Hints:
The complex is a heterodimer of chains A (114) and B (125). Chain A is an all-alpha fold and 114 residues long. Chain A is 83% helix and 0% strand.
Amino acid sequence: xxxxxxxxxxxxxxxxxxxxxxxxxxxxxxxxxxxxxxxxxxxxxxxxxxxxxxxxxxxxxxxxxxxxxxxxxxxxxxxxxxxxxxxxxxxxxxxxxxxxxxxxxxxxxxxxxx
Amino acid sequence: xxxxxxxxxxxxxxxxxxxxxxxxxxxxxxxxxxxxxxxxxxxxxxxxxxxxxxxxxxxxxxxxxxxxxxxxxxxxxxxxxxxxxxxxxxxxxxxxxxxxxxxxxxxxxxxxxxxxxxxxxxxxx
Lengths: 114, 125
């Protein structure tokens, strides 16, 4: 079984590409937050469920999940040397990330259903 | 051959250079941000469900202990953001040389301090 996903150039590239997207998203989000007239329930929902914002937020979620996975994987590989412990911790991490990701997509897609 | 030399790894006594501190703080802030993900998603869920649950989020975040957590999140984002940009620039071979690396680290700390102040003033006033 190839463990290519655990090493090499590809994660390195993904980490940097996602980083650039995260920087751009945070600038956009901060701009929206600070230029908003009010921070209230209706305005917030209107912002999030605007198709453009739902889309860029969805991409943001994908970017941050990959970014967090690669970052946490690097930390675990640096400090945890027992192979079973590594697999266990990495499994827990990916469970948290995938669970959080599915939860966000449920939230983002509710507007389509409702 | 066994090596009986003492290993001195007192983490409090080890003095990292500034660039090392910024790098290590990037790692710490990254782990903190990861830990905040599930909680953030929970708050996001509450915030869109109803006007009442949106108000509940505000109420939750206004508690004194949560103000500390918020400050920790703001620091983590600010530091990870600027230190991350610095690492991207270093990947592009900008600011690699030792004296430039020191300046880069100072700029990261300066930018993050300004960002934290702006966010705190902008959000809480």
